[in-house]
UniProtKB/TrEMBL annotation:
GO terms for molecular function: D-Ala-D-Ala dipeptidase activity; metallopeptidase activity; zinc ion binding. Transmembrane segments: none annotated. InterPro entries: A_A_dipeptidase (IPR000755), Zn_M74/Hedgehog-like (IPR009045). Its cofactor is Zn(2+). The keyword Cell wall biogenesis/degradation applies. This is D-alanyl-D-alanine dipeptidase. It catalyses: D-alanyl-D-alanine + H2O = 2 D-alanine. SUPFAM superfamilies: Hedgehog/DD-peptidase. The active site is at E211. Its EC number is 3.4.13.22. One of its GO terms (biological process) is cell wall organization.
Amino acid sequence: MVVIAASLLIPAGAAAGDVPAISPASDPAQAGMLDVATLAPGFVPDMRYAGSDNFTGRPVPGYEAPRCYLHAAAAQALARVQRRLQAQGHALRLYDCYRPVRAVQSFMRWVDDPADQLAKARYYPNIDKGLLEEQGYIAAQSGHSRGATVDLGLLDCRGGTCVERDMGTGFDRFDPLAHTDSTEITPSQRRNRQRLLEAMRAEGFANYPMEWWHYTFQPEPTPGTAYDFPVR
């Protein structure tokens, strides 16, 4: 998602009004990023912005392949989370990782087009699109563009086939039900969120309370730098 407080999760030493500089890096290697899937087995990619199953209803500019890149330290930490969960019979489903600046800019164009409501029923049924920016759901900057933020879900693989754990809402649902500590979800859904929270926290990832799926590795490797190379 592109929630302002979530995506910015202002890193230590940075002021709330700081605008990250855009790096000239043209690929993951130049940016110091790794493909997470190469570091541990069993990740299940579901990279929503590379396809049409997302809140815009179409593939997002900058996503040319369903791959998850993160800065090396964050990627290695996420691999440790995956191995920890696998030992418990679970695994991670990946929704979004590094996000090019051009993708964030496309989100801003989308929110400024009131006629475009392709995915409203699934992603923001209870909020007027025109209020998404005002209420803090859409912002002009994203922590994903700094390469240390990941959106993910939890899978139960104990039966031999991995199935999605019920987290109370789907990914990128613009709704209070998606708040990590929502009181409107069931005890089972709360336990699923807590399992994910504890596994991520153990390896240095901080959750954004408005989104159960959203985590940022702390401290961020490049808190003052954003990237714009395409995901391919």
